[in-house]
């Protein structure tokens, strides 16, 4: 079984933030020395990093569930909890990260490139950080936020300059072995190559990578054979090399017919995926001319292919005839493509601050005297609240009031006893709204209702 895997679904979960600590400093002759609860630690992030030593996504196919470390809770004595460890997942160069719906999140190219796919939750504030002139000894702390959870698809598109395209047993594996130091499996039966092979070729001052893509057959773009599975590996190639078998004895096959089939499959694949391959330079290698009948056929069809606009070379991967000329011809095409490529600018971090006056929330009617409050801040504050502590609930009401939610509900038509949902539909917290109660009146006292702080 091959160890090459170029597609995997990954379920990632960032670390949860640690809870804040509610603690009061105590020592002899100083029973209430003030709040000293520390903050919780931040949860670890899940990070994808391009690693040149990673060539497959096999590990993620075997273990698709990955989780970063959680932050630890804060402690008394102003001791903050430790941050959770980040989880760094190495991926091959050329990995495309998408959602399960196909939306592209990032295209990871270049050793060391990093992408934070799931951010760890913030740690909750301890009661020392929540103290204020009005609330001198908070009897509560904020809970840590849960880390982000995400399902993503990883798809590897091989980074290569030249893609070798041809029928099974056309000699592509032998050609890559002859041109480079790669040692792919070689045999004379169809579908010998089950995974793409890479080789590095040097032609004068130009060094480039060639990819041996598993053989195509008619209907490959519709899922027949191995073509559909591995055609994605030619998407990044700047040059395509058609390797045509001039020594095949299969009925109905000849170099011209094979070329037409290959071009048709590339066109259909481009139409299905939206990747236009028509502008990629093509070269044609008429292979196996060491066989006398194959040489005669190559000399017969070469003028026909040249007339169609192809640059045609006669080669033999077995005897290495014509390989030097082929290597330099490919090198010229690669060098020209690199020169025409726009200069890459370093990635810039763009900060877009919130527009002045922009609301941090939105009140949406969803029924008769039923409203939903949408927004990151209200949802985050609800997640941080310990609803078993009355003082914590009062603090939440105070924050929501200062944010302007009370006024927004009144403007939206909410009346006494309105049902208010805060958060997304699947995890919303429901309140009964009482506009006659001042939010600040819910603060119960210097030590709250937690019996451990009495």
UniProtKB/TrEMBL annotation:
An essential GTPase which binds GTP, GDP and possibly (p)ppGpp with moderate affinity, with high nucleotide exchange rates and a fairly low GTP hydrolysis rate. Plays a role in control of the cell cycle, stress response, ribosome biogenesis and in those bacteria that undergo differentiation, in morphogenesis control. NCBIfam families: Obg_CgtA, Obg_CgtA_exten, PRK12296.1, PRK12297.1, PRK12299.1. The keyword Phosphoprotein does not apply. Belongs to the TRAFAC class OBG-HflX-like GTPase superfamily. OBG GTPase family. Its main location: cytoplasm. This is GTPase Obg. It is found in: Cytoplasm. CDD domains: Obg. Pfam families: DUF1967, GTP1_OBG, MMR_HSR1. Residues 160-335 form the OBG-type G domain. Its cofactor is Mg(2+). Mg(2+) binds at residues 173, 193. Monomer. The gene is obgE. It is an enzyme of class 3 (hydrolase). Its EC number is 3.6.5.-. Residues 2-159 form the Obg domain. Residues 353-435 form the OCT domain. InterPro entries: G_OBG, GTP-bd, GTP-bd_Obg/CgtA, GTP-bd_prot_GTP1/OBG_C_sf, GTP1-OBG_CS, GTP1_OBG_dom, GTP1_OBG_dom_sf, OBG_GTPase. It comes from the Bacteria. GTP binds at residues 166-173, 191-195, 212-215, 287-290, 316-318. Residues 63-83 are annotated as: Disordered. PANTHER family: DEVELOPMENTALLY REGULATED GTP-BINDING PROTEIN-RELATED (PTHR11702), MITOCHONDRIAL RIBOSOME-ASSOCIATED GTPASE 2 (PTHR11702:SF31). Keywords: Cytoplasm, GTP-binding, Hydrolase, Magnesium, Metal-binding, Nucleotide-binding.
